[in-house]
Amino acid sequence: MKKIINDYANYTVPFYGPADFVVKKAKGSYVWDTNNNKYIDFTAGIAVTNLGHSNSELTKILNQQSKNVWHLSNLYINEHAVQLSKKLCQKTFADKVFFCNSGAESIEAAVKTARKYTSKKFKKDKNEIISFSSSFHGRTMLGIALAKAKNLIDGFAPLPKGIKNHPYNKIEGLEKLFSDKTSAVILELVQWQSGITKADQKFISKIKQLARKHKALIIIDEVQSGIGRTGTFFAYEQFNLVPDILCFAKGIANGFPLGGILTSNKIASAMTVGSHGTTFGGGPIACAIGSSVVDTISKKSFLQKVTKKEKIFINELDSISKKLGCIQSISSAGLWVSVEFNQGINIDNLIALAHTKGLMILKANINTVRFSPSLIIEDDLIKKGLGIFESSILALLKK
Ligand SMILES: Cc1ncc(COP(=O)(O)O)c(C=O)c1O
Questions:
Q1: Substitution candidate for ligand 1 out of 137, 141, 256, 372 with most atoms within 8 A of CB
Q2: What is the pLDDT of residues 99-122, one digit of tens each?
Q3: 223 lines ligand 1 (CB under 6 A)
Q4: Does the pLDDT value for residue 89 go beyond 90?
Q5: Which atom of ligand 1 is closest in space to residue 105's alpha carbon?
Q6: Least enclosed by CB within 10 Å: which of 49, 95, 196, 376?
Q7: Which atom, in ligand 1's list, is nearest to the CA of 140?
Q8: Would you say the CB of residue 317 lies under 6 angstroms from ligand 1?
Q9: Mutational pocket test of ligand 1: of 16, 46, 134, 223, the residue with most ligand atoms within 8 Å of the beta carbon
């Protein structure tokens, strides 16, 4: 294991600071390293493997499709992309779908589509985008320009222009940002960078009102909140809001790269052949898997279980919080949970300790951890994992 870790340090651009073990295999909500240590996975590849690692049904589909056709290009129609598009439209507000490979690319496609639509339909310079603080929209130049956080943009100027950033959930001053040049507002209905934070309904109502008044579009980034994560297939279903464009990725093909946007016929009609495209997006393997993921996760009975499991997390965490007294707040949106600690708890050390005890968890920020387990994690595994979480905190407090 040490040799691989050394080679990793020697041969990869240091964009990441990975855990100090090497993963050999994973099944359901368990992961094993090359020394056969077993971990309970509360990360699911950062909200991606929603139906568990190496899901048997999806593995079967992947194997079968790999024998039929792997890749075609978008010059030819593959039936799985058509089938998945149809399912997504039938289950959401959308009439049309565009597929790409990742969340960041879905943001790119959404902003390009919005700008094309508003500049064609209204006026040429109707191209400004309003985004919000503490957001995350990926690591492309556009994504970091939208988030506008110092740690993301430092050293990467010049960034794409025409973006105005406003504090999240703050109504005051928002109106001033809108004008006849506003093309779209982009936001996450549930943010994670400051711990799990939902958009206030009043904030959403104001955005809806201002967007209507200024003929601007609403783009919802559901790259992480989508595909059952928050207890509905998409989070917008809980917010009295119909997006003009929705971005999705992560869980849609359970870890096989796939992303995309959903939109209406009206907006899609602004895009014509050659306006946008991708080599890999919407490939037959990804879409065959995605089709099955949508069938499973969109079922009401499945989504109800997500909410039930969220309650187990919250009840267990409440009792840990009462016992230990070092937890500042707990928040959740479905199986997306964050735990904020009082000052003095080093999150990096806590995560490293959890690893040594067999639990994988994520950092949200300097004092907050985040869980995004598979949506099928067994109830007793949630309790077992939280037992490890508690003992890791205790061990850290004793240090
Ligand atoms: C809300 C949101 N948008 C966009 C992205 C970017 O997605 P990707 O990493 O697939 O490019 C992420 C990734 O974490 C995300 O959480």
A1: 137
A2: 999 999 999 999 999 999 999 999
A3: yes
A4: yes
A5: 11
A6: 95
A7: 11
A8: no
A9: 223
Please, is 37 exposed, middle or buried when counting C-beta atoms within 10 Å of its C-beta (0-12, 13-18, 19+)?
middle
For residue 97, the CA-to-ligand 1 centroid distance in Å is 18
What are the DSSP calls for 301-353, one per residue? Answer: HHHHHHHHHHHHHHHHHHHHHHHH--EEEEEESSS-EEEEEPTT--HHHHHHH
CA 138 – ligand 1 centroid, Å: 5
Structure tokens that stand for 88 in this block: 């997504």
pLDDT of 379-395, one tens digit each? 999 999 999 999 999 99
Q: Whose CA is nearest to atom 5 of ligand 1?
A: 138
Q: The domain 2-54+300-398: what is its CATH number?
A: 3.90.1150.10
Q: Residue 399: what pLDDT? A: 80
Domain over 69-297 is classified CATH 1.10.533.10? no
Which residue has the least CA distance to atom 8 on ligand 1?
103
- In the chain, CATH 3.90.1150.10 covers 2-54+300-398
Number of CB atoms found within 10 A of residue 250's CB: 28
Ligand 1: does its nearest atom lie under 6 Å from the Cβ of 224? Answer: yes
Atom of ligand 1 nearest to the CA of 135: 1
Cβ-proximal residues to 311 (8 Å cutoff; 6+ apart), any chain: none
Tens digit of each residue's pLDDT (9 = 90 or more) over 300-357? 999 999 999 999 999 999 999 999 999 999 999 999 999 999 988 999 999 999 999 9
Q: Boundaries of CATH 3.40.640.10 in the chain?
A: 69-297
Q: What is the mean pLDDT of the chain?
A: 97
pLDDT recorded at residue 51: 98
What pLDDT digit, counting tens, does each position of 256-277 carry?
999 999 999 999 999 999 999 9
Q: How far does the centroid of ligand 1 lie from the alpha carbon of residue 136, in Å?
A: 7
In whole angstroms, what is the distance from residue 31 CA to residue 38 CA?
6
d(CA 269, CA 246): 16
**Ligand 1 lined by 49 (C-beta under 6 Å):** no
* Ligand 1 in reach of 221 Cβ (< 6 A): yes
**CA 181 to mean position of chain CA atoms:** 29
Residue-wise pLDDT tens digits, 16-61: 999 999 999 999 999 999 999 999 999 999 999 999 999 999 999 9
